[in-house]
From TrEMBL:
The keyword Hydrolase is assigned to this record: yes
InterPro entries with a match to the protein in the record: 4-hydroxybenzoyl-CoA_TE (IPR050563), HotDog_dom_sf (IPR029069)
GO MF annotation: an example: fatty acyl-CoA hydrolase activity
This protein's UniProt keywords: Hydrolase
Source species: Bradyrhizobium manausense
Pfam family, one: 4HBT_2
Record has Zinc as a keyword: no
Membrane-traversing stretches: none
UniProt protein name: 4-hydroxybenzoyl-CoA thioesterase
């Protein structure tokens, strides 16, 4: 499995009045981490649009389990990988570490989408290109 890790410092604006990260901020971090995963794997946003004719990789489901809070100034490491790939949808997992401890597990279901060839004003799911499958799964 292809895995990307990135370190993130918790900012003042990430925190609520109790000085812990306001949970929706993690979902923004997860979105950035998924984009970064594709970029680091060699599939930039420009590649998705130009080479594969995709419009994006929207999220259709998300959830998290929170174990350890983080506060302003903390450093966390977000480890992101694609756990499974179907025809056009895929499952992303984010493990967030605070030091060595698992602080959060985040889960996303996303879909590759492009323009519908029969009606370019509409979007349609698109199959995962084989080279992307190979890169993310190691097969």
């Amino acid at each position: 499995m292809f895995v990307n890790r990135r370190d993130v410092q918790i900012q003042w604006g990430d925190c609520d009045p109790a000085n812990i990260v306001y949970y929706p901020r993690y979902f923004a971090m997860f979105d950035d981490s998924t984009s970064t995963l594709f970029e680091v794997a060699g599939f930039s946003k420009q590649d998705l649009v130009r080479k594969y004719g995709l419009v994006g990789i929207p999220m259709v489901d998300t959830r998290s389990r929170f174990y350890i809070p983080s506060t302003y100034g903390d450093w966390i490491t977000i480890e992101t990988k694609i756990e499974s790939i179907k025809r056009s949808s895929f499952e992303v997992k984010h493990n967030v570490y605070k030091g060595e401890a698992l602080a959060i597990e985040g889960f996303e279901t996303r879909v590759l989408v492009g323009r519908d060839p029969d009606n370019p004003d509409r979007l349609k799911s698109a199959p995962f290109p084989p080279e992307m499958v190979a890169k993310f799964t190691g097969s």
